[in-house]
Amino acid sequence: MDVGTLYRRTLEIWADRVADAAGCDWTAPTPCREWTVRDLVNHVTGEDLWTAPLLRGETIERVGDRFEGDLLGSEPVSRALYAAGQASALVAEMLPRQGTVHLSYGEESVEEYVHQLAADHLVHAWDLAAATGGDTHLDPKLVAEVTRWFAGREDGYRSAGAIGPRIGTSGDPQHDLLSAFGRDAHWGPNHAGLARFSAAFERGDIESIMAHMTDDCVFEATGPAPDGTRHEGAEAVRQVWEELFSTTRDASFTEEELFVDGERGVLRWRFSWSNEDGTPGHVRGVDVVRLRDGKVCEKLSYVKG
Q1: Phi-psi region of 300 (alpha: psi -120 to 50; beta: other; left: phi over 0)
Q2: Cα dihedral 42, 15, 5, 83 sign
Q3: How is 197-249 classified by DSSP, letter by letter?
Q4: Which end of the chain is more exposed for a tag (fewer CB within 10 A), N or C?
Q5: What is the per-residue pLDDT across 63-117, written as a single tens digit (0 to 9) for each?
Q6: Are 116 and 4 in contact (CB under 8 A)?
Q7: Cα–Cα distance between 48 and 67 in angstroms, integer?
Q8: How far apart are CA 270 and CA 267, in angstroms?
């Protein structure tokens, strides 16, 4: 498959997933852990807007901050699709001329740059579909072509910090391509649910915390030693959070790591506070959780020390 066809078809898949996301929750988490749905679409829209000046020979320095910040405004779908359409037209015009583009790491061939764009559109189309409950199936021919191109570049991407570690292989081409790009091919409602749960704790938002726990949830506290205290049912668990956040000065949770495998998840965290004399204190701990339909039904907490 020639790179022009690859790019056009991956861009079409991206545009389809954006259109499908029109009525979704744009604050929802995505497989790109640091991005919400809106952040993800904004990122790809930025790439599409960059395509024209780079193909026309402009440098990153000359473009400057033109495409920084929020690019979606009040009409995220239409703006994202407009940017994709403009990029597609420029690639169709400029790719046959070959030449080079100025990227962050130096000059690169136009063909290589377009390959990079195609891979990004394909993988981010899956990210968006996974996050919004859309169609996560990718065209096997596109998967095979991106896999072939990426095989010699994976280590470079990873060493540059552009992708995370591989998450296993299965022999399924789409699964293994996503894994090569640092994705969990099984990412779904439980991943999103635990991410929302963690974010709610970081905000100290009790209503949101409880919205992401089941009515029959169980929480096993870290103390007293050695077994902690078990709290059963949403009302009992809510009372624990209300006491924690109302009686602890400057209570603050920070996520350190999160992963999900099926119905089980692990969340590493740091809990900080201020003592009566104003000095800071903290503990580091881990939650071993069980999830059901995207909500936490069991939270077993442990701390260092």
Answers
A1: beta
A2: negative
A3: HHHHHHHT-HHHHHHTEEEEEEEE-S-STTT--EEESHHHHHHHHHHHHHHST
A4: C
A5: 888 899 999 999 999 999 999 999 999 999 999 988 999 998 889 999 999 999 9
A6: no
A7: 10
A8: 10
